[in-house]
Amino acid sequence: MYRQSAAFSTLLKFDFQVGVSFVVLVLEQGVNLTTLEIVTLSVGLPFSFLWLILGWITMRKEIKPLMWIFIVLGLVGPAYVIYKIVMLFENLKEEQSEKLLIYAVIVAGALELLVHVILLIQAVVVYRNFKKGLKERAFDPTEQTSLLVAAGRR
């Protein structure tokens, strides 16, 4: 159970980092951003950060309704990535000078989608382990076998 929770936590952070890298690569494309894309990126980064916090709190506190909210909101996240990849494929023949950057954005987007799907699958696995005692054994400082006691954080 702990390994699954640790994997979820790691994937959560990795998903956020890959998402930020994708946004940086999109912004490196320069002035070709539409108003819709600027608004989407302005809202998307804070949304991703809040989604990261929601996932961590949900896993740590084992709150089942919040995990469902986390999963549903997680289905919204890849929408911009898919949109951007489709738009780049459509414009690939026109853009001759920035092909390397376009390929980098496509690879980063594909990695973002892959990590995101694995994260959502792992969220379901972690959800199934809720209320089986991990929270009490791992994070209760009064428990002698607690991870916090073992780490010296008592």
From TrEMBL:
Keywords: Membrane, Transmembrane, Transmembrane helix. It holds the Pfam family DUF7789. InterPro entries: DUF7789. Residues 3-121 form the DUF7789 domain. The chain crosses the membrane at residues 7-27, 33-54, 66-89, 101-127. It comes from the Eukaryota. This is Uncharacterized protein LOC106177839. It comes from Lingula anatina (Brachiopod). The gene is LOC106177839.
